[in-house]
Structures are given as C-alpha cells and as structure tokens.
Specification:
alpha/beta, globular, 221 residues
C-alpha cells in the first residue's frame, strides 16, 4: 500500500483551509499530524479517505488517483483498503458490539465471526460482544471503533483524534491497542491528534499549516 498526496489544496469559498500539502506514506509507516485547532486536520484526513472533496492537487492510494473515481468506486476502495477511526466513535446504536465490528466484513460479503471475536480480544473487550453501545464507556467505545477499522485488514488506517474524548489513562491504553494492532497487521497509520504523548509514538510528526505540512520539532511550542 502506498499513499501519495501532491500539492493538495482545499478552500471554503475564497478562503484557503490548507494548500500545497504533499505527503508520501510508506507501507507500515506511522505518521502523526498535529496543528492548531481550525487548521483543517480533520478535513485533510477526510480528503485522504476520499470522504471530502479538494480543490487542487491529487490523492492516490496504491497509484489509484481518487479524483478519477466516482462516489461508489471511492466507497469500494475504502471498504477494501482503508480503515477509519472517528473521534465520535460512529458506532450504530441498534447493533451490538460484535455486529458493529463485523460491519466492514459484511459490506465486503466476507462474514467471519471468528475474526470479529479475535479483534475484540485483541483490543481488550472480548467479553463485551453482546452489549449495546450505550452500555459501554468512552474508552470501550473507542476500542470498538479500532476493532471495526482493522477487522477487514486494511492497508491504510486513518485515525481522527482517537483519544480526544478520553481521560489520560484511558487514552494511553487506547493508543497502545491502536498501535499494537496496526503494527501487527502491517498497516500504515495516519493519526491526527492534539495529544503530544500520542504523536511522539509515531515514526514521523508533521505540523499542518495553511501553506502545507512541515516537519515538527519537539522543541517547538
């Protein structure tokens, strides 16, 4: 899997959200993206997944230019190659934990209850498969989201502030589960975060600014 972003730009009206964003992610690489609130980190992540549109530049996954795909083709590519962990969890309240995690496999017509249970065990909630989301804590819900994002073995995982709603202790254990499972699957991971403890675990840290991505120095404020 390769992710290549070249000179990407996004505007709202005449105002640029970001521009001149270029990025290459290698297979198995973990890259953290940090930046000020409102600079467009979540918007950038949505563009990388083909969930949002951009105004200039290109995004390519496995040499497939997302701009050449219609919405259905982008959805198929995401199902096969991409996992997404949302800050707001985005679990379906009427499905139990195991059913939520199984969704990517069901969409691919590859049901695998054994695989689902293995993922629940791997993120530390193996005994909660029959519970409904409203019966879980925030940390447990985030583990559900991680298991769901990885159950179909995507080559690329995109995580949007996965610890933003969690207390520090729970955030640390959730990050541990996320990184361990990503490494085990050999997936590339792009993490958007305000958390420096989370970002410092990455292979590379980049700062998003309105004029592009810059290498982040730990000496910066």
């Amino acid at each position: 899997m390769s992710l290549m972003v070249h000179d990407l730009g996004k505007r709202y009206g005449e105002a640029p959200v970001f521009q001149h964003v270029s990025l290459t992610i290698q297979p198995g690489e973990f890259v953290a993206i940090v930046g000020e609130s409102g600079v467009g980190k979540s918007t950038l992540l949505n563009c990388l997944a083909g969930l949002d549109h951009w105004d200039s530049g290109s995004v390519a996954i496995d040499s497939i230019d997302l701009a050449t795909l219609d919405d259905d083709a982008r959805a198929r590519l995401r199902r096969e190659k991409v996992g997404f962990v949302f800050q707001a969890f985005h679990v379906l309240p009427h499905l139990d934990v195991a059913q939520n995690v199984a969704l990517p496999l069901m969409l691919l017509h590859r049901p695998d209850p054994v695989r689902v249970q293995a993922m629940l065990d791997a993120v530390g909630i193996g005994e909660l498969g029959k519970r409904l989301p409203q019966q879980l804590s925030g940390g447990q819900l985030q583990r559900v989201a991680i298991a769901r994002a990885l159950v179909h073995r995507p080559a690329l995982l995109l995580a949007d502030e996965p610890t933003g709603n969690l207390d520090p202790g729970t955030a640390a254990s959730v990050m541990q589960a996320l990184i361990a499972q990503t490494r085990e699957h050999g997936a590339a991971l792009v993490l958007v975060t305000h958390s420096m403890p989370a970002a410092l675990q990455a292979d590379r840290i980049l700062r998003l600014q309105v004029d592009g991505l810059r290498d982040f120095s730990t000496q910066e404020s």
